Please model this.
Amino acid sequence: MRQHFLIFCLIIFVQTCLSAQIGCPGCALNLPAGLPDDTLYLPPFPDGEKGTPYNEDISFRVPKTTTPVHAVDSTILPGLTISKIEIVSIEGMPPGLFWEASQMVFETAMQTDGCIKVCGTPTTTDSFELTVNLKATVFIFTQETSFPIRLYIAPKVSTNDGFTMENVTGCGSTTVTFTNNNPSNGNSGFTYEWNFGDSTSYTGENPPPHTYDKPGLYEVNYHATIDTVGYVLVSATVLAVDCVDQLGVGQPDLYMFINNQSGVQLYNSSPHINNTPLPYTFPINLPLTETAIYSLEVWDEDSGLKGSDDPCGSVAFNFLSTDTLSGMGSFRIVLNIQHPVDEIFTTDTVIVYPKPITPKITANKLSACEGSDTIVLESSFGDGNQWYVNGQLIPGETDFLFMPDSTGYYQVQAHNAYGCSSISDSTFVEIYPLPAIPTYINDRNNLKLADTLTLPVNYSLQWFLFSAPIAGATGFTHCAQVNGDYSLVVTDLNTGCTNMYATTVTIDPNFDCTIGAKDVVLGELNIFPNPASGMVTVQMAAPLSENGTLRVWDVAGRLVQTVQMSIGADQVQVDAGNLNPGMYFLELSLEGWRYVGSLAVLR
Model:
């Protein structure tokens, strides 16, 4: 079992596994017998070979609780129910391979078993680290995670009687290594001839790696000559002898022996052949030395009759004596001398597929505002595309058009029918962030930008009523004189990006914002803690010189709280515990003076 998977992506509450991409239907589920119901199981991906079709079904089981994970990682709290596991993606699949899961979402109370089929023909040799991305849900918490799993694609190997080749297929080029299957092991008598099929050849036992740098089909021809046995006297056929049977009633009883030039006997055919019929072949199988002279004698066995055996003929010979030899009298003999030489002829094939022309990216523009979806990148290839950002594959993006939504360096990889690919140069795309939403408040019909500090360095403002720009309304405030839908649009002049805040304003007839007020904003209120969820302290820079009123407004301009302050006070407590979460604006009014501040309420 793969323990990488077991750690199973559970950081605090959960983590999980797997992935999916269309292309390999028909996965057959086949889990080993005896697996517990609540377990996690994923076997290693089987190795593949470059250029060889790959078709593997990988069955898995995901856990129902965090208990199996705790068994391998004690930092994980056991006993928590995993309600759902979702396969998001598998990234880094070797070029030429595709995958498809039997299902993508597992409601673990109903289903925990699944299967992934990986199929295709890998075109690249490497040890690939795949990234499995998934989501897991424990209670109401969903967390995304990833974990690695390896898939090794071995070089393409072709083996025959003569030699073995690695990397026999390639895209654009390939460098083939050769292994001689008939090595000499340092012995003499071996010769080799190699023809690589591209007008180059090699004579030697072990050729160096050979590079094919043009598309094509190349026949590699191999010729090995193995001459290690030397010359062998396989047999000798006696045609006629210069002797007769002593009784004159039959044929001589022949036997044969062979001596070397030193007189040492190397062969003796005894016992004799009774009434030897002629021609007669004696099997011998005697290795011959190329520098030696041998003597061969044939005798008639006569013991017990008239004394000793009778000579029937003799000849001298060497390793080249393959014709009919004659001795004294009528003796004639034919020597069958063989020189066994093994010759091995084999042919194999190297295929270099054409690579696609390097694709090019064209774009209608290379920068845009966040969320605008106006940048369109176009590949010069109509199909067989895969888009990348910052060197990482973008799952599912295989169309010739792509609309980026984040800043980065984009490339497109083109694939042809042979599984070969080329990748474009990178194109930098910049997505500008939008300005902060220009939230405003309604202060007695006077619409005011709530926070000027969030404005871009270079900006413009424009107030709208019912989507129509209000002439001259380009400042922080606007006096609303009629009921309606008011919006404020901020533009970042450096990027051209805009953002807007809009709300419905109902005129308060008790206030006339067209009449100038005597209030003067002297400064900001010091409010802490901020954000807050309970009691808040509003601190003044100095004690009040007169009685005042602190008012709290929500973002819709509604007065939600008032606090009276007495002369001499330098701070006041405001209870934020009964306020809804959100942004509030505080105003302290004195006779002819105003202080303002903002408060964020959280829960």
